[in-house]
């Protein structure tokens, strides 16, 4: 990890304020999985074409997320069963800045991802309800009711996910590239946990199919897109007896990748 931090330190920096025009809350996502051992090579190849996000002097950020779902795991099942229209509901804490947001990610039938979010001040990821006053809870319930087909009172914490992230922005400011490492999943219901220390999930986020330097780099290294959901992967890994046939081949590929 020290080697990776040294490489990222060589990138030209970009601040959160400078990234305002690259939020990409309505976007097309392309994901890849690679072993941690390959990451230094990929970072070296991207250095001339990307800025590295720097927040409070740090270029590797910590994320702590709690995903919510129904008792029957409706959001997980919809994804597993290849439903094109689906949502993920989560509360994400950006540890470096102490900011916490309720985030709703919606995938439409054209493959576009749309994200809506609201600030949730003082939220404890271990708690079962959001907010400390009736007004805060009502605001959250109203937001979820307006943006999703779910009601707040039918949702509960299902999966906690923690990871470290590098965020790169191409120099034309048309895309973001997130690189997630040190992934840890903890099932909020049964306490089961899983981690893949050697797994890296790379996600290319852009508004349409504009040229991406990273796409060429991946082709050069014979790395193909890999559709994956951190929520679904973690839920499948930590929930015994759960329907997961569609994800078994992905899990096998990840386990093989992490052994190389």
| CATH topology-level fold name | Hypothetical Protein Pfu-838710-001
Spatial sequence of strands, sheet with the most strands: 2-7-6-5-4-8-9-11
Based on the coordinates given, report the CATH architecture: Beta Barrel
Rg (C-alpha, Å): 18 Å
Tally of helical segments:
7
What is the CATH top level name? Mainly Beta
- For the termini, the CA-CA separation is 18 Å
Percentage of residues in strands = 35-45%
Number of β-strand runs: 11
- CATH superfamily grouping: Hypothetical Protein Pfu-838710-001
Overall shape: globular
The portion of residues assigned to helices is 25-40%
Please supply descriptive tags for the structure shown above:
35% strand, Hypothetical Protein Pfu-838710-001, alpha+beta, 7 helices, 260 residues
Detailed description of the structure:
The chain contains seven helices and eleven strands. The chain is an alpha+beta fold. The chain has a single domain, classed as Hypothetical Protein Pfu-838710-001 (Beta Barrel). Strand 9 (175-187) and strand 10 form a beta hairpin. Helix 1 (2-8) packs parallel to helix 2. It is globular, with a radius of gyration of 18 Å. The mean pLDDT is 88.
Short summary of the structure?
The chain has 260 residues and is α+β, with helices and mostly antiparallel strands.
């Amino acid at each position: 990890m020290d080697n990776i931090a040294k490489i990222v330190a060589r990138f030209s920096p970009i601040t959160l304020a400078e990234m305002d025009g690259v939020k990409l809350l309505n976007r097309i996502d392309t994901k890849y999985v690679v072993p941690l051992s390959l990451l230094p090579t990929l970072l070296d190849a991207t250095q001339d074409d990307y800025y590295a996000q720097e927040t409070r002097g740090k270029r590797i950020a910590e994320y702590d997320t709690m995903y919510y779902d129904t008792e029957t795991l409706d959001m997980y099942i919809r994804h597993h069963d290849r439903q094109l229209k689906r949502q993920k509901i989560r509360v994400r804490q950006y540890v470096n800045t102490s900011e916490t947001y309720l985030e709703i990610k919606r995938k439409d039938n054209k493959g576009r991802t749309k994200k809506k979010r609201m600030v949730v001040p003082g939220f404890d990821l271990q708690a079962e309800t959001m907010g400390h006053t009736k007004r805060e809870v009502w605001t959250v319930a109203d937001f979820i009711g307006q943006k999703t087909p779910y009601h707040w009172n039918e949702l509960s914490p299902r999966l906690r996910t923690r990871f470290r992230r590098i965020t790169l922005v191409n120099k034309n400011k048309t895309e973001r590239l997130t690189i997630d490492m040190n992934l840890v999943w903890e099932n909020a219901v049964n306490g089961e946990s899983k981690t893949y220390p050697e797994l890296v999930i790379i996600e290319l986020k852009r508004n349409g199919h504009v040229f991406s330097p990273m796409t060429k780099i991946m082709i050069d290294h014979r790395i193909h897109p890999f559709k994956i959901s951190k929520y679904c992967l973690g839920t499948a890994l930590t929930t015994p007896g759960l329907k997961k046939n569609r994800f078994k081949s992905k899990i096998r590929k990840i386990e093989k990748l992490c052994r190389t």
